[in-house]
Amino acid sequence: MNCIYLLVRRKKGLKRRVLLILGLVSVLTLLTGCTEVNVPITSESEGFWNKYIVYPLSQLITYFAEITGDNYGISIVLVTIIIRLAILPLMIKQTKSSKAMQAIQPEMQKLKEKYSSKDQQTQQKLQQETMALFQKHGVNPLAGCFPLIVQMPILIGFYHAIMRTEAIAEHTFLWFDLGERDPFFILPLVAGATTFIQQKMMMAGTANQNPQMAMMLYIMPIMIIVFAISFPAALSLYWVVGNLFMIVQTYFVKGPELKAAKDGGNKK
């Protein structure tokens, strides 16, 4: 959300280039991430996406399943944690960038009120003052976008590895078959609840300032529940473990901020 919010305020030339890059990344992600989701992944699978991202992740799942007694459920949990740890530096950088942007929101709001006129000259002045504000506080408005772009192919690749590794569908874990929907809908509900908690923690102190973010706080968990009800339980398991990891990570990264938001809520 912050990425889109910031991009529209950049100078026109830079805005076009950035939007073009993001558009190309989105198209690439769509083409590589959705077209073969029902095709099993094997060593013969062709293409950069399959050979160097999906297949290695599939092999990693298989490897941990073998060393845990052919338990693909435990394997998905372990590989999810490993991947989250691997991209943890990117997540921390993205979070810090988001916090830096939040810190200057009051000053940005004052600038918008000062230059509220919609004529071209006033809007150019607003852009100049906004960029000067970024420079004054050493904030890079695009710093939070790059980690997100790097993370997405990895996470989508792992999703593919789970969906396209045939052996996963042949095994069970806890009360469910990994290749079938959770018969009791427990995992989808937990996935939705943990998504809500994780987003709530990430948005601590900002949801009231940004109505769009507040709306996403409720829309995303509902979407996750709907998807999880329809998808194999293995994918729901991945979402739940990933969300729990993110909750713990957010607690440690944003601890003081979360405490301040809680204290503010108690005073009310």
Automatic annotation (TrEMBL):
The chain crosses the membrane at residues 72-92, 141-163, 183-201, 213-231. Residues 72-254 form the Membrane insertase YidC/Oxa/ALB C-terminal domain. InterPro entries: YidC/ALB3/OXA1/COX18, YidC/Oxa/ALB_C, YidC/YidC1/YidC2_Firmicutes, YidC_ALB_C. It is found in: Cell membrane. It comes from the Bacteria. The keyword Signal applies. Keywords: Cell membrane, Chaperone, Lipoprotein, Membrane, Palmitate, Protein transport, Signal, Transmembrane, Transmembrane helix, Transport. It is a multi-pass membrane protein. The keyword Cell membrane applies. Required for the insertion and/or proper folding and/or complex formation of integral membrane proteins into the membrane. Involved in integration of membrane proteins that insert both dependently and independently of the Sec translocase complex, as well as at least some lipoproteins. Belongs to the OXA1/ALB3/YidC family. Type 2 subfamily. NCBIfam families: PRK02944.1, yidC_oxa1_cterm. This is Membrane protein insertase YidC. The lineage of its organism: Bacteria, Bacillati, Bacillota, Bacilli, Bacillales. The gene is yidC.
